[in-house]
Predict the 3D structure of the following.
Amino acid sequence: MTDVLTGKTALVTGASSGIGRSTALALAAAGANVALVARRAERLKDLAAQIEAGGGQALARAADVTDEQDATRAVGDAVDRFGGLDILVNAAGMTQVGKVENADLADWRYVFELNFWAALYTSRAAIPALKAGGGDIVNISSTAGRRAVGATFGPYAASKFALTAFNESLRAEVTLAGIRVSIIEPGATATEIHEHIKDEKVREFTRNHVEKDGAMQADDVAAAIVFVVSLPPRVNVSQLVIRPTVDARVL
């Protein structure tokens, strides 16, 4: 365990799997206290136990961050437990597919609720605590938030484009208060993101894409997040695009 983030407290949404889980472990390894937020309580308990077994401090807080009140309470619980908040990582996210014609509007709404609105809820709740000593808000987007490819992944791409605009607006709002706002845009990364796709063919296509030879691992993205929040306060990495080396040619 290093000490670069000793004395800091981080809250990570989507901490039960994928990039969120890896980020929580990486932040704890760097010395931060970590509040773990997701819906799957048992996974959070196991992760908290793993962090504490390694000498860290963790709070497992089962919450649905698409619910404004639940998201706000989760942030408050972290502040109460650790006496403040220095880092918020909005890693909760999912994908669903569908075209505009004959769209399943419930699917579109839920993708936006988790990928966009949840980040707004937690960021809004965290700002007062972050203003107390300066800190970081890190939003996890995707290269799909830079370029919408094809018609199938419209809900996901649209939600990530919205997150990018939100990130820039928020950064302009809070920068003079000493809060850094960053967006991380990974390319193909091996996670469970394909599991909730209803269309079997698209689910298999997506699984093959994120698990292909040369795809990044969640730990790779977590390392980038630790790098961003460990920089001197005078430095704000506002956007960071990271791709598998095999996809570096992709615009």
Q: What stands out?
A: The longest helix spans residues 105-133.
